[in-house]
Write a structure and sequence with these properties.
The chain has 98 residues and is mainly β. The chain has one helix and seven strands; from the N terminus they run E-E-E-E-H-E-E-E.
Length: 98
C-alpha cells in the first residue's frame, strides 16, 4: 500500500462562484509503471470540489491537499499522477518512484 498526498496550487484551479460557494472539478489519473516503463494499469477518478467562502479564502495560502491510498502491483516501481482541471483545461503531473 502507498499513501499519496498531493498538494495542488489553488491558483491553477478554476473554481466557479455560486449560490452554495465555490465549485470545481478535477480528473485524477494514477498510472502504474514497471522499471522498464511498461504500463501496468491505471485508476481514474473525478474530484468534485466545493468550498464555502472561508475555506476558499484559505486556499490561496494552503492550496488543495488530497490524500489517496493506492495498492501498486508487485512489479510497479513508480506511479505517475496526472491532474486535469476540467474548468480551465490545465494539466499537471508528477511521478513518484520507489
Amino acid at each position: 500500500m502507498l499513501r499519496l498526498t498531493l498538494s495542488i496550487d489553488s491558483s491553477g484551479v478554476a473554481l466557479q462562484p455560486g449560490d452554495q460557494g465555490w465549485t470545481g472539478e478535477l480528473a485524477m489519473i494514477y498510472d502504474e509503471r514497471a522499471a522498464d516503463g511498461k504500463d501496468l494499469g491505471r485508476i481514474s477518478e473525478t474530484l468534485k470540489l466545493h468550498y464555502d467562502e472561508d475555506h476558499y479564502q484559505k486556499l490561496a495560502a494552503d492550496g488543495i491537499t488530497y490524500e489517496r491510498l493506492v495498492h501498486p502491483t508487485a512489479q510497479a516501481t513508480q506511479v505517475r499522477i496526472v491532474v486535469y482541471d476540467r474548468g480551465s483545461g490545465r494539466v499537471g503531473s508528477v511521478a513518484v518512484k520507489w
